[in-house]
Structure formats: structure tokens, C-alpha cells
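Batch manifest, entry 17 of 40.
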Amino acid sequence: MTININTTSLEELKTLNLKDLQAVAKEVKVKNWWTMKKADLLQVVADTCFTIQENLKKAEASCKGANEEAKKTQKAQAKKKAKAAKVEKDEENLVTLKELAAEFGMKGTKARRLLRDAAISRPYGGNRWEWDKNLHIDELNMAREYLKAHIKAPKKEQDK
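Output type: C-alpha cells
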């Protein structure tokens, strides 16, 4: 006789004969099941099965809560993606960080570090430092002023 441990009740266990009850006890890993009398075995198996059922219910509830949390996170991420719609960039009007760095005679890595430290945001979001000459005039001027303030003065001016 096959019995489902996850859904069995005490009434179902009482209907089993000793051999079937011992098989269930072996399945749920009851210690010394072969030496127990039927009444003792029935009590231990019932307690073990109900403990398994309770743990299963807790696990299902936990998974359900985790699934709901994951769904909420996915919805929030979908909303963010919807809000951050792609903006068409006019490649001819773009000023890149490489161009700004060359304008002030510094390396791109230094310019990036300076702009990050100054908390100057990237106009298009994302991960690229590029400004549109027409749309981002203020941000571009702010970046230029900040980089200009951090360039090294020529040696001739330092001697004076």
C-alpha cells in the first residue's frame, strides 16, 4: 500500500497494518522502527508526518511570499524601463567626453573621474558621457567649467 506522507491523516495511518506502518516509518526515517509495537509506531509516524506537513506548508508560504516579492520587483523594473524611453541622438550634434578631455588636454580617465566626483549626471542617463550641443547646453557648460577649473596650469605661469 502506497501512502502520501505530505497529505496523510491520522485516520489513514490507523487503517494500516503493522507491515505497512513499518514501511512508512522506514520511509520517514524513524529510528528503531523495527522494534516498536504498533501503537508506539503509529504515534511516532503520525508525529513525524505532521511535522513534515507543517514544514511543507511553511516552505510553500515562504516561496509564495518570495514569488510575490519577485513579481513586485519585476513590475518595478518594467516601470523603470518604460519611463526611461530611448531618446534619439543626433550624432552630428553630440559632444563626447573624449572631445572634452582633448579640449582641456587631459586624459579621458581623469575627466571621467572628475565628473563622477562632482556628481555631474550623464544627460542621456545610461553609461555614456555625451551631450547634445542643442539640448544640453547648460549641462555641457557646467562640465566644461568644472574640467577647466581642474586643468594644470602651464609651467611658465606657475613660475610667476
